[in-house]
Amino acid sequence: LQMLEQQVVGGEQAGNRELKEKRRRRKKQADERRLRLLGALQERGEDSSQQVLLRVYDSIQEEVRAKSKMLEKMQEKLRAAETEIKDLQSEFGLEKTDYLSTIRRQERELLLCQQLLQRVQSLVRRDCNYSNLERIRRESVWDEESACWKIPEPVIEKTHLP
Fold first, then answer.
1. pLDDT tier for residue 67 given thresholds of 50, 70 and 90
2. Angstrom distance (rounded) from CA 120 to CA 135
3. Domain boundaries of the chain, sorted by first residue
4. Is 151 left (phi over 0), alpha (psi -120 to 50) or beta?
């Protein structure tokens, strides 16, 4: 019974020493090749998760466990990246809303200033250089250092009749 068991457990050629030696040599060659590939990957700086793909496994369960662990790590990285994307999108949305409200407020202020100028322009004397707003705009210069406009001084031009 033991002889039959030994033959059945190892297959037909369980006692074949040549076959065992051949398997041992193949495993040794595969291990050497794996080590060379790992060395090449480490020289290139590849991710350590790639090492699991080059590993020689003794059983399918061991391979399944190793690849399941790698899958869990990748899923965790994916969840972290998705969370980061959502955070950035919400931050971008808040900034966009803030910029739009600032633009609307500035447009209202600009409209107010334009309406005030139109009303006040009729009150300015005709012989003053401020009676022509287009001329004032042309003569105004932006000063980078002080970050403000240099506007010409108001001058009243007296006209003398002969």
1. confident
2. 16
3. 19-123, 126-154
4. beta
